[in-house]
Amino acid sequence: MKELNLKHGHPQVLVLAADWRLADVDYTNDIIWELSLTGGEPEVLAIQTTMGLRCGGLRLFPRFVRKDGTVSDPAKFHHSPVVQQIYPNYARIHFSPFSGLEVKAEFQVASSTVICGRFVLQNKSILKEHFRFEWAGILNSLTNGQGIAVVPFDNNFVLEGGSGDLRLVSCLSSPAKAGGGPYSSLGQEIELYPSAQISIHWALAAARTDQEAFQLSQAALQRRFDAETARIEIQNEVEELEISTGNPEWDAALVLSQRAARQLFFPAAGGMPDPSFILIRRPDQGYSITGDGSDYSSLWSGQTVLDTYFLSSLVLPGGVKWVKGVIRNFLSTQDEAGQIDWRPGLAGQRSRRLAQPMLASLALSTAEMSGETEWLKDIYPGLARFVRYWFGEEHDRDQDGFPEWDHALQTGLEGSPMYDRWHLESQGLELSVLESPALGAMLVKECRSLCQIGRLLGAEADIPWLEERAEQLAAKIQETWQSEQAMYHYRDHQTHAMSAGELILEFSGSGIFPVQQDFETSQRLMVVFESSEHLTRAVTIRIKGWLGEKEVVEDLNPQRFTWVNGRGRATGRSVFSKIESIEVNGALAGDQGWVRIPDYTLEDLSLLMPLWAGIPDQDQAKAMLELSIQSEWLEKYGLAVCGKIKQPDEGGHGVLMPWNHLVGEGLLHYGFRKEAAELVRRLMEGVIHNLRTHRDFYNQVDACSGQAMGEAGHLHGMAPVGLFLRTAGIHQISPERLIIQTGSPFSHAITVKYKGTGVTLNAKEAQITFPSGQSVRVDEPGLHKVDWE
């Protein structure tokens, strides 16, 4: 693989962790490391961790001591550190602490509790160099611990410390003495003649006892370092796409995203048959106090189908077996009725909510990218049962063929102003009363994907039912089309209302409030209640009215309210054609409330999903692009959750990469390739901005400023590798064939290499190089399939 050569200020992600493909990985006791090229206290080049918050910080770093002084601050190095290579569990850095001495520092995470490395020191001057190399450590221990100290152990000196119930031992490969200076260190006197070099190996292990930690550390020192490094490089090379764009920062972001995505995987556990993944893997994580992972946050306790769909775009085609495995994991949670769990986790976590209906779409895109279809036979029956379950009475409550979500978390877009309850400016409507174009689009695409899979497999019994459901549901989604805004809208699942809402009553305190209001069409009501002391209230609302000739009385009791910061919201389940009175009980003087018809015109990014599913006709798609996406949604760094930012203090600024990825796929579906390339460019600039400034991916970036938002290291902040490839013209790349589309919309030629196959795409042609060394040029427009079996 080509070297990265990333200096300070270049896009970087410097996290290292045990790689399950190559080592033992422990989901409940996983020590994750981070390389710091500069800064900290003291300012050093360090490998560091908090061991999952089991210590305040552990830092290991080199020092170089000569007669004329000590060098450890990278800012004072003769040549600053350059990251030459970084894989999920390995990094190589080059620097020169002083003139004449070149250092190659390598780091390998050997397992969840062991890290090792080596320093290769070479004298590049014409004079003999004499200095002392010191391997120093600092540990800010917590309860029942002690800082790092140099102690004798088994006829040698080691660094030893502990925090909580963990003991730490670090050794050098050759005899060492206690170093000097203010920090505990192991020192070795080095004498290097011109052009000579020496290697110093080190290891650190964590265990329950000093003896166990020492033995693990010694075993790591006996590893064949070069062989292990070669193994790491080969493993990554066979699974990774090498991408050259003409922009070094794009190249770095694309390769770092692929490697960071692979770092998220753990071996099979929690009742799942195949490896699964988490959403973030950073030094403050990886330790389960309960010992079984049941106490982990949502970032470590499972993944959704939407997460998996986006992750697949980062690891395909090399990770096709992983994606197939995650699909099987979802299917392993399926019950007899057909329900698949929304978010299965590695500790056996189950949400008992229904998964997003995107599994067939994911399976089909995986098969198309990899060229493998045989495995679809095993999963097709379960996927078909899953889709049928979505159309059952439990999820299509009025059985009109347009199912509803059950919970905001299911959507993958819980920050929508339509139903979010955590922000004061959001409406907070109960999601289950809505028909969502996004859910409808997922189901339409799911039905059509299953039809394609069925035809591939010769299993066509379900196809008539699937086609009928897809056609009927697509027609219902079209009913929500608003031509003036060139957007699809939410609507009430019972009344099909899509109005802008209306205030029915504003009240203060308790009482009976006459209303006497008639509606042209039946309406649902919702209540927003605000206590004067920002506390919850046991408030009850009784609404009396009529639905046609039938009297309707609805009680909103305290259990129906959801409270956040003194504001309670409740959504009515009855509908009215006339309201006579509203009775409020349990409110105190100074409390305020509002009874409203919900506003169904509120928009979020998910309303663009019909484009992804191919539901609008070409004219509608063009209108969505020009009047909606380009005019109202597209910002400097991508598509924001809630559209164009009109006021700096408004919410909904964040760019959610998985949703942007889906919209980009929709643009490509309709032939808007240049526009998809522009979206990719903006998304890439947001990713690169944070890799430069924060050396990490972030859950979201601000659509206007690019400022980091949410959690660092999050899957959702990684570069849109798959969307970039499809936009450039790579539809399938495998050891057997290549499917490409000529006419790349990017300004520079794009080169992609995989398992000996290389393809270079520009605006006019594609140049393909086969594993045999032969090459062919393709310059005719359109899709082209090239086989070389």
SSE map:
Elements: E1 15-16, E2 33-36, E3 46-49, E4 57-66, E5 69-71, E6 79-87, E7 90-96, E8 101-111, E9 114-123, E10 129-140, E11 146-153, E12 156-163, E13 166-172, E14 177-178, E15 185-192, E16 197-207, H1 210-221, H2 225-239, E17 242-244, H3 248-262, E18 265-266, E19 276-277, H4 305-315, H5 320-332, H6 359-370, H7 376-390, H8 408-411, E20 434-435, H9 437-457, H10 463-478, E21 481-482, E22 487-488, E23 491-492, E24 502-508, E25 511-530, E26 540-547, E27 550-556, E28 562-564, E29 567-585, E30 592-597, H11 609-613, H12 618-633, E31 634-635, E32 638-639, E33 654-655, H13 657-669, H14 673-693, E34 698-702, E35 708-712, H15 721-728, E36 730-733, E37 737-741, E38 750-754, E39 757-761, E40 766-769, E41 775-778, E42 783-787
Antiparallel strand pairs: 1-2, 2-3, 3-4, 4-5, 4-10, 6-7, 7-8, 8-9, 9-16, 10-15, 11-12, 12-13, 13-16, 14-15, 17-38, 18-19, 20-23, 21-22, 24-30, 25-29, 25-30, 26-27, 26-29, 28-29, 31-32, 33-34, 34-35, 36-37, 37-42, 38-39, 39-40, 40-41
How would you portray this structure in words?
It contains 15 helices and 42 strands. With 789 residues, the protein is α+β, with helices and mostly antiparallel strands. The longest helix is centred in the middle third of the chain and has 21 residues. The two termini are 25 Å apart.
List keywords for this structure.
single chain; 789 residues; alpha+beta; eight-stranded antiparallel sheet
